[in-house]
Amino acid sequence: xxxxxxxxxxxxxxxxxxxxxxxxxxxxxxxxxxxxxxxxxxxxxxxxxxxxxxxxxxxxxxxxxxxxxxxxxxxxxxxxxxxxxxxxxxxxxxxxxxxxxxxxxxxxxxxxxxxxxxxxxxxxxxxxxxxxxxxxxxxxxxxxxxxxxxxxxxxxxxxxxxxxxxxxxxxxxxxxxxxxxxxxxxxxxxxxxxxxxxxxxxxxxxxxxxxxxxxxxxxxxxxxxxxxxxxxxxxxxxxxxxx
Amino acid sequence: xxxxxxxxxxxxxxxxxxxxxxxxxxxxxxxxxxxxxxxxxxxxxxxxxxxxxxxxxxxxxxxxxxxxxxxxxxxxxxxxxxxxxxxxxxxxxxxxxxxxxxxxxxxxxxxxxxxxxxxxxxxxxxxxxxxxxxxxxxxxxxxxxxxxxxxxxxxxxxxxxxxxxxxxxxxxxxxxxxxxxxxxxxxxxxxxxxxxxxxxxxxxxxxxxxxxxxxxxxxxxxxxxxxxxxxxxxxxxxxxxxx
DNA sequence: GCCGTTGCATTGTGGAACGATCTAAGCTAA
DNA sequence: TTAGCTTAGATCGTTCCACAATGCAACGGC
Lengths: 243, 243
Known about the structure:
The structure is a homodimer of 243-residue chains.
Chain A: H1 2-13, H2 16-29, E1 38-39, H3 41-48, H4 52-65, E2 68-69, E3 76-78, H5 83-102, H6 109-127, H7 131-147, H8 152-170, H9 175-179, H10 182-194, H11 198-226
Antiparallel strand pairs in A: 1-3, 2-3
The structure holds a DNA duplex (30 and 30 nucleotides).
C-alpha cells in the first residue's frame, strides 16, 4: 500500500529523466534489452518523446549505476558483464554479506523478520512456479542480509551491485532452473542467522557465494564465446534490431 | 608522474560535466563553499562559461555523491550535515572498516604497505605542520583500511562517504587541533593490523570511531544552533555573498 | 589484400525560449 | 499591527535548434 502510493507519486511527479531511467532500468533488468544493445540517444529521445538532453540525463544515471556503459562520442550500450566484473561483484558480496552476518548480533529484531519474510517470498515464488521472480526474490534475501547493517547508503550501494548481477541473469536461457536450487540454501542460512549461529551462517554463505560465483562466471564466459563475432551496426536508416 | 599525467589528461579531455564537477568538489571540500551555500545554475554556468545543461550535469553528479542537495525547482546548495547524516556515515565506517579489519588476513601484502604509507603520510603532515592536510591524510589511512577488501567499487563508495564527512571538517574553526590527536591512534591501529592482531585492531578502531563520531556530532550540533536564523536570499540583482 | 581517405551518423556542447514553480515583497483587511 | 492573500520576479525543468568534434564504415588507391 505505502509502496504503491510511493511508486505512483514518483511516476507522476518525478523529474522526466528519473522516469525514463526507471523505464529503461526495468527493461534492462527484465531482459528486454539484452547486454550489448545500443541505446542511441536520438532514437530513444524520439521514442520517449523527450528532448535529447533529458534522455541523456537518464542515461547518465544508468551509467552511474553500472547498468550501461557510455563511452565518449559513442553510443550508450547495455553493459556486458566480463568475468572480471563478476569477480568484483562477488568481492562486494563477500565483504558485505559476510560482514553483516558477523555483525548480526547487533541487528534489531525487525531485520531478522525481514530475513524470514524474503526467504518465504522466494519459497512462495518457487511453489507458485513464478520462475522469473525466483532470482529476484532470492537476491532480495541477500539484500536483507546486508540490510542488517541498518545503513541506507550501504543498502543503496548493494542494491546497485545486485542490479548489475541481474544483467548476467538476463542472458540465461533457463533462469528458472538455475535459480531454484539456491532457495533451500537461502532458507538454511536464514535459519542459522536467526538462531545466532554466526560462524555457521558465515561458512555456509561463503560456500554459497563461491558456488554462485562459479556458476555466473561460467554463464558469462559462455556468452563471451558466443559474442566473439561483433554485431555490426546498420548504416543509413535501417530500423535497428535491438529494442 | 603517472598520476600527474592522468590528472592532466582528465583536465584536458574529460567531458565538461566532469571537469566542472571536479572544480566544484574541490572548492567544497577545501571549505571555500561552506555548507548551505546556494549554487544557482545560471550564475555558475556564466562563471564557468558553459551552458546551463552542462553545469546541471555537474551538479547532478555532486548530488549523487551526497555533497550537495538539489531539490526540485530550488537551487542546489552545499549539503549541511545533520546529526542523522553523521550517524549514517559512521554506520558505514563501522561496517566497512571493522569488516575489512576482520578480513585482513586475506589481504595481499601491498595492502599492508599501503596502510603503512598512509599513516606515515599523516605523521609527516603533522611534523611538517601542514595542518590542513592532516585530516585528509588520516582519512586516507581509513580509506586504505577499507582498501584491504580489494574491491574498487567499495573503494569508490567509501570514498564518497568520507567526502561527505569532510563537509563537517570544512566548518570547523580549528581543524588542525581537532585532527592531530587522531594520528597516533591511526599509527597504533596500523601496527595491530600489520602484526595480525585483528581482534585488537578491531576493538581499537571501534573505540576510535565511537570517539570520532561523538566529536563530529558535537561540531554539527553546534553548527545547527548557529544556523537557526535562516540566511535570506537577496532580491533583484544583488551580488550574492557565497563565493 | 592492406591502408589511407572520405562521408555520414552520432555524440558533446552551446544558446535561446517557455511554462512551471518557488520565494519574497507588497497589498488588503480585520 | 498583523495575519493572510495577491502578485511579480527569479530560478528551475524541459524543449528546440544549431554546430563542432569524433568515430565508424564504406570507398578507393597501392
